[in-house]
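Co-fold these.
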Amino acid sequence: MKTIRSQQLLTIALLAMLAFTITIAHAAGPLPSWNDGKAKQSIITFVEKVTRPGSPGFVPVPERIAVFDNDGTLWAEQPMYVQLFFVVDRVKALAPQHPEWKDKEPFASVLRGDVKAALAGGERALMEMVMATHTGMTTEEFEQIVKGWIATAKHPSTGRLYTGMVYQPMLEVLAYLRANGFKTFIVSGGGIEFMRPWTESVYGIPPEQVVGSSVKTKFDLREGKPVLVRLPELNFNDDHGGKPVGINQHIGRRPIAAFGNSDGDLQMLQWTAAGPGVRFCLYVHHDDAAREWAYDRQSQIGRLDKGLDEANARGWTVVSMKNDWKTVFPSEKK
Amino acid sequence: MKTIRSQQLLTIALLAMLAFTITIAHAAGPLPSWNDGKAKQSIITFVEKVTRPGSPGFVPVPERIAVFDNDGTLWAEQPMYVQLFFVVDRVKALAPQHPEWKDKEPFASVLRGDVKAALAGGERALMEMVMATHTGMTTEEFEQIVKGWIATAKHPSTGRLYTGMVYQPMLEVLAYLRANGFKTFIVSGGGIEFMRPWTESVYGIPPEQVVGSSVKTKFDLREGKPVLVRLPELNFNDDHGGKPVGINQHIGRRPIAAFGNSDGDLQMLQWTAAGPGVRFCLYVHHDDAAREWAYDRQSQIGRLDKGLDEANARGWTVVSMKNDWKTVFPSEKK
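Predicted complex below.
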C-alpha cells in the first residue's frame, strides 16, 4: 500500500510538471515560422473552432483526421521528385548486374547521365525504371535500400540531405495539429514503401499513417522463413482521384483538413471539403524563387492550375511561401 | 495569469483523479473473464516482457502492434459468417428491384430460404451475391446500410444482436493491450467496409485500424458533389497469405502479437512470429459446444487444422474456450 501511495504521488508530481510544460509551450504560440497574416490565422481559427468544447464546430478527437500530400507540400519536389533521384541512383547501382542496360532505353540514357532523355519515354519508361529498381526483393530488403539511400543522398543543387529539404512551417503545422488531438496522415502519389522508412523520424508520422502508391506483394516461405516479395505490378496509384480512394481504403473516414500543393491533390481537397461541419483545405503555392522554387500553372512537376482556380473560388487557404513563411527549411531557423 | 494558474490547478486535480482511477483499475487485475491458467498467464507474461523498461524484451510503444482476426476470434462465426447473413438479408431486401432473381441462381435459392443450396454454387455464386449486394452504391450509402442492419439483425439460433456475440475475454485482451500502449488492429477476411461502421463502438478499434477484404472504388463528381462509388470488382482478398500482405499494406510494420482461430490466420501468425525479439501468437480453439460451438479440423467455416499442428509444434498459446474462459459473451458476465 505504501508503494502504491508513493507511486501515486510521483505520478501526480510528474503530471503536474507535464501540465506546467504544456502551459509554457502554449505561451510561445503555435506556428513560429509563419508570418502573421491570413494564412497562419486561418489554420489557428480552424483548429480553435473544432477543438473548443461546446463550439458549434466541435469535432471529437477520433474524427480529427488531417491529410498531407508529401512532394511539394511537406518537402521539395524540384527539379524533380525525390523518388526519381532514388530511381536514377538505383539504376546506376544495379547497372553492373544488367550489362544489357547499356543499349536499352530508358536505362541507357540514365547511365549516360541524361535523365531528361530517359524520361522522354513517358509513363511507360518511368514505370519500367520503377519496376526494375523497386521490385524483385523482399519488403525488408527494400526498406534497407531506402534507409541507406535517404541517409546519404544529397540534393543536386542545394547539397542537402533530402530529409533536410522538408518545410519547417509545415513541420510546425503537423506538430500543432497533433498537439490538438489530430491524427496526421500522409497521402502521397509517391511510393508508400519509399516513404515509410523515414516519415516517423522526419515528420513524426508512423508507417501506419502513410498512404501512397504501391506495387503488389506476395507472401512466400523461403526455407521456412516468411517473406513478402515485391512484384513488378502496380497495386495502387495514389494520385488525383486515387487520393480519396486511398484515404477511404486506409483511413476509412473522411478527413476534416487537407493540405496539398498541386492539381494531383485537388480531389483529396474536394473530398475533404464535401463533408459536413467545419472543414479546412490549404494549398502551398510555390512562389519563392529565392529561397525555394517558383512554379504553378505551367510546371510539369507539381502543376497547380485547376486547383488554384478552385481554391480562389472556394476561399481555401493559399499559402505564399514567399510572404507567409519566415523560414523554408529547418536549418535556416533563427 | 490568474486564469492560467487556476486552469493548471484544475488540470493537476483531474490528472491526479485519473492516476488514482488507473491504480484502482489495475488492482482488480487484467483479464477478469479468464480462468487462471497457462493461456491467461502467457498473455500477461508477454505483455510484462515487452513493456517493462530495461527488460531485454522491451518494445517501444510505437512498435507495440497487435493484430486480431475477427470472425471466430473476436465474435462468433457459426453456423455461418455474420457477413453471409447480411448478404442473405440484402438479397431479400433487394429482390423487389430484381424480379429476374426468382429464376436465377444463386438468388432463387436464397429467396426460397435455402441458403445451403445457394452456396453450393461455390466461390462464384458467393461472389455474385456479394457483388449484387455490396456494390453499385456510394461508400456512404453502404455505410448506412450496414449500420441499419447491424443495429437490428439477430442471430438465428441465439436471438442476440450480432454485436452481442463478441467474446468478452477477447474484449478484455484488447483493452489490456491498449492500456499497455498497444495499437490494436483487426485483420480479417471479412469486408473492410462491413466492419468499420461498428468496430469502434464494439471493440474500441477505429476505422483506420481495420484491415479487410475490399472491392474497388472510384472517385466521381455527382452534380458537383464528390462521391466514391463501390465497383463490382474485387480489390483485395485479405485471407491466408493475403493477411501479411494486408498488414504490410495498411500498417507498414510487423506486429509483435497476433490472434486468430483458423488456418486462414496461419500466415499472419507466421509473419508475426518471424520478427526479432519477443513475439506472441495465440489461437482461439472452439471446443465449447455448450456455450458456443465446437469445431476445428473438419469444419467448413473456420477450419483449424494446419494451424493447430503448427501452434502445438511451436508452443503458441492455444485457448480452450471451454476451460480458459469464465464467460463467453458479454451479457453472461457475473
